[in-house]
Amino acid sequence: MNIRITHNSALIIIDVQKDFCPGGALPVPEGDKVVPVLNRYIKKFSDKGLPIYYTRDWHPGNHVSFKSQGGIWPPHCVQDTKGAEFHDDLLIPHEAVIISKGTLPDKEAYSGFQGTDLADELKKKDVRKVFTGGLATDYCVKSTILDAIKDGFEIVFIADGSRGVEVKPGDSERAIGEMLSKGAIRVTFEDIYSRD
């Protein structure tokens, strides 16, 4: 399969933060393995001058998703902590845009579109095709992709640059199935090419 990167494509990197990598507060198994893969996509988009967005969980200390507040997760990605920082080896070009989500204590936000201006940012730049990968396949990647489809974007799921939490075995494959059934296209780096 060949998927083209065109002038109206953008890249969204989802939540590649220290707390979601091995040693973090809420580690995704092999979460750090996405970094070198995503860096290849980042370099390709950056070299072409195409927009790149990075979402991040940016939670207050009393966020509704935390167990202490009745949620299901341990505290993670608390604003201005080491765990909320992006992985040290992740490339972040100076022109990249950071999208913070889950910033309000009482609002969940798995999707990069929820409570943010990401959709407006993409539309302002006339983006129609969005390449998306990161952490975690079965939560924030899935939610972001499903919202992007609802907003009318053509979606490319970066399978080789995503990993799942797998709260229940098979969660990631089920998430991928749902994304594909709604219209996302699944790719690895070898599937993409670009027209200069």
Output the keywords.
8 strands, 4 helices, two-stranded parallel ribbon, globular, Rossmann fold, 196 residues
Shape: globular
Reading off the top of the CATH hierarchy, the class is best stated as Alpha Beta
Specify the structural class: alpha/beta
Strand order of the largest sheet: 4-3-2-5-6-7
Tally of separate domains: 1
Indicate the radius of gyration in whole angstroms: 16 Å
Percent in strands = 15-25%
The share of residues in helices is 10-25%
CATH topology: Rossmann fold
Q: How many extended strands? A: 8
Order of helices and strands: EEHEEHEHEHEE
- Stretches where pLDDT is under 50 for at least 5 consecutive residues are none
Distance between the termini: 19 Å
Number of helices: 4
Task: Please give the CATH architecture.
Answer: 3-Layer(aba) Sandwich
Global mean pLDDT: 96
Q: CATH superfamily assignment?
A: Isochorismatase-like
* Biggest β-sheet description: 6 strands, parallel
Description:
This protein is 23% helix and 19% strand. It is globular and about 45 Å long. The chain has one domain: Isochorismatase-like (Rossmann fold, 3-Layer(aba) Sandwich). It is built from four helices and eight strands. It has helices spanning 34-47, 118-124, 137-150, 171-181; strands spanning 3-5, 9-14, 52-57, 97-101, 129-134, 154-158, 185-187, 192-194. Helix 3 runs parallel beside helix 4. Strand 5 (129-134), helix 3 (137-150) and strand 6 (154-158) form a beta-alpha-beta unit. By secondary structure, the chain is of the alpha/beta class. The strands form two sheets. It has a six-stranded parallel sheet with strand order 4-3-2-5-6-7, sandwiched between helices. A two-stranded parallel sheet has the order 1-8.
